[in-house]
Automatic annotation (TrEMBL):
Gene3D superfamilies: tm_1862 like domain
Protein name: Heme chaperone HemW
Statement: the UniProt record of this protein carries the keyword rRNA-binding: no
Domain of life, per lineage: Bacteria
Family matches, as InterPro entries: Coproporphyrinogen-III_oxidase (IPR034505), Elp3/MiaA/NifB-like_rSAM (IPR006638), HemN_C (IPR010723), HemW-like (IPR004559), rSAM (IPR007197), rSAM_horseshoe (IPR023404), rSAM_sf (IPR058240)
UniProt keyword Membrane present: no
Lineage: Bacteria, Pseudomonadati, Bacteroidota, Cytophagia, Cytophagales
Domain Radical SAM core: 1-230
CDD domains linked: Radical_SAM
Role description: Probably acts as a heme chaperone, transferring heme to an unknown acceptor. Binds one molecule of heme per monomer, possibly covalently. Binds 1 [4Fe-4S] cluster. The cluster is coordinated with 3 cysteines and an exchangeable S-adenosyl-L-methionine.
Family in the record: Belongs to the anaerobic coproporphyrinogen-III oxidase family. HemW subfamily.
UniProt entry keywords in alphabetical sequence: 4Fe-4S, Chaperone, Cytoplasm, Heme, Iron, Iron-sulfur, Metal-binding, S-adenosyl-L-methionine
Organism: Dyadobacter endophyticus
Length: 374
């Protein structure tokens, strides 16, 4: 069983971000109460079993104070049986990570941190409107390790406009000195409903050039591989098998419950999307109503989702599972495309598993969508 908790508050809006969050934290305690209530209301959503992963995402869960974090974890412990080695991750921003806060997290049971570093370069942090400084980015990881949390992932953003690749190389070299077991690397994308999106429309900034982004990704990939990181998902790299168990469960299509404003849930047959509005969420949950939209997944939806997420991972997709999900339609509809892609050297088959080649990983989403069935 897997649980995602969305904490929809941030100190300030990063210029690239289109996640759901509010910078007005006045309703934080009320939202935390409502999330706890939603956990109780929806405790039967998941099949029976131990809770294997809990993931506090957002927004900025490191804005939770001790009482709020304890309250949420106690609610979970009161209604679910936690696996003895449950992975409990909290997304954190460097500016929140004082030694005292990190000790509080460790004491509460947080055993994995996903830290939104994004860059160690001050002008890039300012360009993206991140709340932390380059110094905080470097210090927070050491403080977390001193607090006894060594299962740490850091997020980095590449393809930030720059004259050459020197800043990316310097960011990577700083990341390697921190000796973290997991790095997630995301390409800067300009989404319409963000500050960058509006500046692009007004021509205040230029679009990110595809060739520049591809060059940066190749540099990043090679550096990570050279430093012993395994690319187990297109954007995710781990040393010594220290994968994100929570995110891997999404990619392997395991059921999960997502609580909080904008959170999604999946039970194999359908997806549910909670309303992306803190006030509406609060009002509904206070009346014991789950403000969610239900989407029933057709065999084609389930097949296509499995392709989209599975092909991005080192585990690939099992042909037998594709046949089962699609009720036999995958082989009928996709066999020509499969042959053409393997001729191009983008995919390969190994014991009934379809995998992307190193060349194919550059076009992962396009390959998946070309294999989609109707
Ligand atoms: S801190 Fe994270 S969730 Fe909040 S605005 Fe920045 S990127 Fe988005």
């Amino acid at each position: 069983m897997h649980l995602y908790i969305h904490i929809p508050f941030c100190k300030q809006a990063c210029h690239y971000c289109d996640f759901h969050f509010s910078t007005n934290t006045a309703s934080k305690s009320a939202i935390v109460e409502a999330i706890a209530r939603e956990i109780v209301l929806r405790k039967s959503y998941l099949p029976q079993g131990d809770m294997e992963t809990i993931y506090f995402g957002g927004g900025t869960p490191s804005l939770l104070d001790e009482a709020e974090l304890h309250f949420l974890l106690e609610t979970i412990r009161g209604h679910f049986r936690l696996s003895p080695d449950a992975e409990i991750t909290l997304e954190a921003n460097p500016d929140d990570l004082s030694a005292a806060t990190l000790q509080m997290f460790a004491h509460a049971g947080i055993n994995r941190l996903s830290i939104g570093i994004q860059s160690f370069h001050e002008p890039h942090l300012r360009f993206m409107n991140r709340a932390h400084s380059a110094t905080e980015a470097e210090q927070c990881v050491k403080l977390a390790q001193q607090a006894g949390i060594d299962n740490i992932s850091i997020d980095l953003i590449y393809a930030i406009p720059s004259e050459n690749h020197d800043i990316l190389l310097s960011d990577l070299s700083k990341a390697f000195t921190l000796n973290v077991p997991h790095i997630s690397a995301y390409c800067l994308t300009i989404e319409p409903k963000t500050a960058f999106g509006s500046w692009l429309k007004k021509k205040k900034i230029s679009p990110i050039e595809e060739e520049y982004a591809a060059q940066q990704f190749e540099i990043l990939l090679q550096s990570l591989l050279d430093h012993g990181y395994e690319q187990y998902e297109i954007s995710n790299f781990a040393r010594n098998g220290r994968y994100s168990n929570h995110n891997s469960s999404y990619w392997k299509q395991h059921p999960y419950l997502g609580v909080g404003p904008s959170a999604h849930s999946y039970n194999g047959a359908s997806r549910q999307y909670n309303v992306s509005n803190n006030a509406k969420y609060l009002e509904a949950v206070q009346k014991d109503i789950i403000p969610a939209t239900l989407e029933l997944l057709s065999p084609a939806d389930q097949t296509n989702e499995y392709l989209l997420t599975g092909l991005r991972t080192k585990w690939g997709v099992e042909l037998q599972v594709l046949e089962k999900l699609s009720a036999g339609a995958f082989a009928l509809q996709a066999s020509e495309e499969l042959t053409s892609m393997s001729r191009k050297g983008w995919i390969r088959q190994d014991s009934g598993v379809l995998l992307l080649t190193q060349a194919g990983k550059l076009f992962a989403d396009r390959i998946a969508s070309d294999l989609f069935i109707d």
